[in-house]
Amino acid sequence: MTPSLTQAELSKIKKHSLFIENILNIIPDPIFVKDANHTLIYSNHAFAKILGMPQADFLGKSDYELFPKEMVDVSWEWDTKVLENNITTENEELIQLAGGEKRTILTKKSMSYDEDGKKVIVGVIRDITDLRRQEEEIEVSHKKIGEQELKMIQASKMSALGEMASGIAHEINNPLTIIQGRARQIGQMLKNVEMDKKAEVNNYLEQIQNTVDRIAKIVQGLKSFARESDHLPKEQVNLSKLIHETLDLCVTRFETFGISLRLNLDNEVFLSCRSVQISQVLLNLLNNSFDAIVEEKAAWISLRFNSDEENVFLYVTDSGPGIPRPIAEKIFQPFFTTKEIGKGTGLGMSISKGIIDAHEGEIYYDKTSANTQFVIRLPKNLRQ
Ligand SMILES: Nc1ncnc2c1ncn2[C@@H]1O[C@H](COP(=O)(O)OP(=O)(O)O)[C@@H](O)[C@H]1O
Ligand SMILES: [Mg+2]
Fold first, then answer.
1. How many whole angstroms from 343 Cα to the centroid of ligand 2?
2. Nearest protein CA to atom 1 of ligand 1, as residue
3. Residues in contact with 219: Cβ distance below 8 Å, sequence separation at least 6, in sequence order
4. What is the whole-number distance in angstroms between the Cα of residue 103 and the centre of ligand 2?
């Protein structure tokens, strides 16, 4: 038997519950209570506000009557766990307000008991949209700083390497010129001298000459890496001829490894460029193709070009199946390589891009092609 309350006691309890009610309504975080049937039985003002409807419209209703089914399927399960296991859950979700605005909220739910001793779920919601936005902004700005630092480090690495290459090239060039000069002189002297072993000496001289030529080419490579030839004057060249000359440097290697060349270079197109540099770019592309397909059975590399009024377009394609996107995005970065240590430097593509940029052209990986394809666009008339 419950002892009946006096009028004064009843009035005090009413006042007290009004007092609590007021406090709950002042709290800016939405608060709600659901019974064991997942029916909303209480909410503060903030909850009604976030739902965008008056309390009368949602009190006494279950989640399924108020929210989209996919959303409730998940939260229903959590609610059951809260009720059955007396655990506290906390989960973050994206909700759409009545006005269409999207907010990120953190909902914390715990089990409690109502005045009759029945289990209820008490939920407190915190709107963390601004917090998340700030966190994202901080993350983005950190990333930007990181990228800038990386670019600076790469640029300084490149310029250090460029200086080194240029230094080495000069160091080698001087003694090379001496050897070349002396070999030529000996050759001249031999003409006037009767000697038994003239043929043999001539043979040695030829070997010296060939070796010197080879070293000269390496030096030329170093120079083009240092981009010293940026200062060379442009020249008018026949593109087909330039390509053939470049191919001469690697065609034997391709044949040895069974890579066939598909050439379509019969057009006659002239363009004004620094030919050593363009040849360097081509060699970089050809070498990359070689590395990519050398193990394939029916390996091929195709070279072709066409032109319009202002530009020539050169297509270097190989039998490879294309470059996966995450890799393709990075290939023009200096020092990016997928090759084993000692094999790749990761510089070929970035140097090539630098050269083509300096020619006011474009070089890009053509992701629409079925086979791995690079395209170079060069203006026919280089201005400076
Ligand atoms: N034809 C190609 N087929 C497949 N991958 C390629 C091709 N060309 C370039 N790549 C990729 O681009 C990377 C960078 O090339 P590059 O700058 O020349 O450096 P390296 O050849 O020293 O690795 C290569 O390691 C490779 O992963
Ligand atoms: Mg390379």
1. 9
2. 289
3. 169, 172, 173, 176
4. 48
